[in-house]
Amino acid sequence: MGAYVADQVFKLMHRAGLQVRDARVLVLGLAFKENCPDVRNTRVIDVVRELQSYNLDVDIHDPWANPAAAEREYGVQLIDQPQAGCYDAIVLAVAHRQFRELGSKGIRAFGKPRCVLYDVKHVLPAGAVDGRL
User: Which of 6, 21, 74, 86 could in theory staple to 50 by disulfide, Cβ–Cβ 3.0 to 4.6 A?
Assistant: First the structure.
């Protein structure tokens, strides 16, 4: 699944004419399930690793996950808050309440003007995203 999602994001970026090599990608969510701090057995890490295999610079933001657990379990560092206008692609990987409340406009604010938004969990309406699982 991780390889499929990463491949879809990569293709969407390429079709949008975005510079893919060394592009910045934001992954929203690392936890095993929504509104839960547990990162054990999460499959989101597979998406992160696959995106990194494309030489993409990946940031992970999860307001529920414990940063120490993410570092200990997977060797990844979570960011406290994504910066607005910084990302070439955004992957909505976990349906946390905070992400639902942001909606597509709030989430897209983290991206550059032509950023790609991929919704793994069908949190957002189909017309508000560039791709979904």
Answer: 6
Cβ contacts of 130 within 8 Å, gap of 6 or more? 12, 16, 116, 117, 118
H helix intervals, 35-131: 44-53, 67-74, 97-108
How far apart are the C-alpha atoms of 60 and 93, rounded to whole Å? Answer: 10
Count CB neighbours of 4 within 10 A: 12
pLDDT digits (tens, 9 = 90+) for 19-69: 888 899 999 999 999 999 999 999 999 999 999 999 999 999 999 999 999
pTM reported for the whole predicted model = 0.97
* Rounded-to-integer distance, Cα 31 and Cα 116, Å: 22
CATH of 2-132, one of 2.60.40.10, 3.40.50.720, 3.90.25.10, 3.30.420.10: 3.40.50.720
